[in-house]
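quick one: zinc ion bound model?
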Amino acid sequence: WGKQGHIMVCKIAEVPTFNSCLLLGCRLQNYLSEKAVAAVKELLPESAGGELSTMCPWADEVRFRYYWSRPLHYVNTPQVCNFKYSRDCHNSRGQQGMCVVGAINNYTEQLYSYGDSKTSYNLTESLMFLAHFVGDVHQPLHVGFEEDEGGNTIKVHWYRRKENLHHVWDNSIIETAMKDFYNRSLDTMVEALKMNLTDGWSDDISHWENCANKKATCANDYAIESIHLACNYAYKDVEQDITLGDDYFFSRYPIVEKRLAQAGIRLALILNRIFGEDTDGN
Ligand code: ADE
Ligand code: ZN
Ligand code: ZN
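yep, here:
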């Protein structure tokens, strides 16, 4: 995702909202546990102003300083609509684990050493990388085809503007939705996504929490979902120099909104598992 997508994912994970306002009043819904909120607060740098969401685009800003981190934002397949860790998760030099799925597993593992005074990891950076990469693995074209670099080499027109397909999914769909539906306000869009989480998608959330291989994270499964969405929605009916407009926007923005929301929920779940769940069941 672009900057706005990453901020939205992290706001969904960390900002509490009022929901289910019944006769007895409203309940404050917080996806992050109290322990996770406390740990995140302690790990955040001063410049974050106490908010994780301000640091969620950080990993894109250090792409050049930390050159090794570039392949950690995505994973590509050899032109097939499935993902296999052993086949696909490597950098250009063939080093295993150097992809977005390996990165999520690695930074999750590092964060488990929180509270261990002898830890040799920079857990502030681990947290900022993890929060960013959980967002990226949910962007369908971050699990795309090697040949077109996840849509980066597919030139398209987004309405009348020249873009590439990857940028359309990182930024343009979000920007158009914000402009057309949400008064150009990021916070209004985040509120709408959260509303959907408590109404429309509430039955789905328990499924989003589970995954086939119950290991540290379900990042493998998130990547499988993304390549399926890339094939069925992002790449579907797209060719070089095509113009994408209303038809494409209205059929694809629901996917983008759902993936942003899923990423936020799952980021909160991962952080809760690492730092501790609340005893009252939240
Ligand atoms: N560069 C190469 N492949 C990419 C992908 N799938 N996403 C983002 N950047 C990439
Ligand atoms: Zn991207
Ligand atoms: Zn990224």
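The two ends are 28 Å apart (CA to CA).
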